[in-house]
Structure formats: C-alpha cells, structure tokens
Design a protein that fits this description.
The protein is α+β, with helices and mostly antiparallel strands. It contains three helices and seven strands; from the N terminus they run E-H-E-E-E-H-E-E-E-H. Strands 1, 2, 3, 4 and 5 form a five-stranded antiparallel β-sheet that branches. Strands 6-7 form a two-stranded antiparallel ribbon. Strand 6 and strand 7 form a beta hairpin.
Length: about 140
C-alpha cells in the first residue's frame, strides 16, 4: 500500500535549479514511487551560522510504497549521485533531501524522526507544506 511522503529539496551549490530538477526526476523513479504533487521553488537564507550562498528550496509529495527507512536510504543515494558531500553540519551542499512527513506516521530513531523535528523552526517549510496540502486536496 502506498503512502504520501513529503520530501524537502534544497540546494545552494552549483546550478541549484538544475540540481532540484535532477533530484525530482531521481525521486520519481525510485521503486514503487511517483511524484504526486510538486511545490513552488523558493530562495531562502541558509540555516545555521556558516557564511554561504542562499538556498533554493522546494517540497514534493511522493506517493511511495517504500517504507520510511528504505526511502531515506534512497534519498541518500540520490544525494551522493548529485555530488553531496556530508561535511560539517549546516554546510553548503549541492542537494539536501529530507523526509518532512510520511503519511501520519510518527517515528523516532537515531537516523530518522517523523514528522521532521525542524518543521516549527522553518517558516519556508510551513509555507511549502500548506501549498502541497492544498495541491493534494485539489487532486483528490
């Protein structure tokens, strides 16, 4: 049975718009997955104290049969394929993919917390979540 996972995409290195597009394609071809809705792209200031370029952010609704941990592993593979190097926390990156929500599931493990604990502190995620929720309601 499939569920809707809301996945945040962010990029602040390289051709940010092209990297978001490549990530969307890669997400759409994950096993048992398809893009159900795609939100707007928004430029935001980086989080944390490191000086770096602004991010382009976007959120997508991914209908998937992958369980949360398998989806997370798929996101990490996509990040690596698109040149993501995990350096210091909050550092610049070619692509960052985060599971923000996975249906109504709640999960707390060292590798994955659902819903994502950063939602309350990221106003751009709150806007993106509202936009996707409206798109998904309209499509139903």
């Amino acid at each position: 049975m499939s569920e809707i996972a809301l996945v945040a995409l962010g990029s602040n290195l390289g051709d940010r718009r092209a990297l978001l597009a490549m990530a969307r394609v890669a997400l759409s071809i994950l096993p048992g997955s398809r893009l159900a809705a795609v939100g707007s792209i928004e430029e935001t200031a980086p989080l944390g104290a490191m000086a770096q370029a602004p991010f382009l952010n976007q959120m997508v609704a991914l209908e998937t049969t992958l369980p949360p941990r398998a989806l997370l592993a798929g996101l990490h593979r996509i990040e690596r394929a698109l040149g993501r190097v995990r350096a210091a926390r909050w550092s610049a990156r070619t692509i960052d993919l985060d599971i923000v929500r996975y249906g109504e599931r709640e999960l707390a493990t060292p590798a994955l917390t659902l819903p994502h604990p950063g939602i309350p502190q990221r106003d751009f995620w709150q806007r993106e979540l509202a936009e996707l929720d409206a798109l998904l309601r309209h499509a139903a």
